[in-house]
Amino acid sequence: MKRIITSLLWILVCQYSFGQESFHDHRNSVEVEKKDDLPPTSEGFNARRIFTGGGISLGYGSTVDGNNSTNSTFNIGAIPEIGYNLSNIFDVGIAASVNYYSTTSSYYVSSKFHNVNYSLGAFVRVHPIDDFFVQVMPEQDWIRQKQITSNYTYITKYQSNSFLVGIGYGHRVIGESYFYTLLMIDLGKDKNSPYNYYDQNGNVSSLPVLRGGFNFYPFRKSH
Length: 223
Known about the structure:
CATH topology: Porin
CATH architecture: Beta Barrel
Structural class: alpha+beta
Low-confidence stretches: 1-36
Strand order of the largest sheet: 1-2-3-4-5-6-7-10
Strand content: over 45%
Largest sheet: 8 strands, antiparallel, barrel
């Protein structure tokens, strides 16, 4: 677990350092570009407000229930996305993802679960202050689960709904590429959600979902 935490902290430090250097070097030219390249949203649709990109997700959680059984989950995945800047405050878009989840449970007998999750969701981002934003994203998930115990191996497929909410950090300037970091949890109660864990007693634990990504504007005007 210490290695996982160390890796996550290293990702955040590298992202922050690189992002600060890039944006401070180009901030003046970006502000000029914003005025020349991006007319007000009241003038209608502007292709140069379309952004795309994506990133990776990482998550880890561990619980001990009333029966003293230990349950731990780790996930890693890729998330492509495309969106549009409605204004200086609001973004909307869609995102897909492919995630791998590994869960180990020690209830009665040791069991391992290996899940591959495909998902599609729509998101809204609100940027109330510089460098920080709030994201809300309902999501549909399709899961393939492989359960392994000492006696058998069983494969099953099912679907779930998730409602991810979180807070992110990233120096967003409309028209300029940027990095971001996002931490979310699933507020939904779907027992099949890959972002929640239900123990044998029916208790739910929300797993933190950490995502880091990069967005750019493919139709940005060249100068």
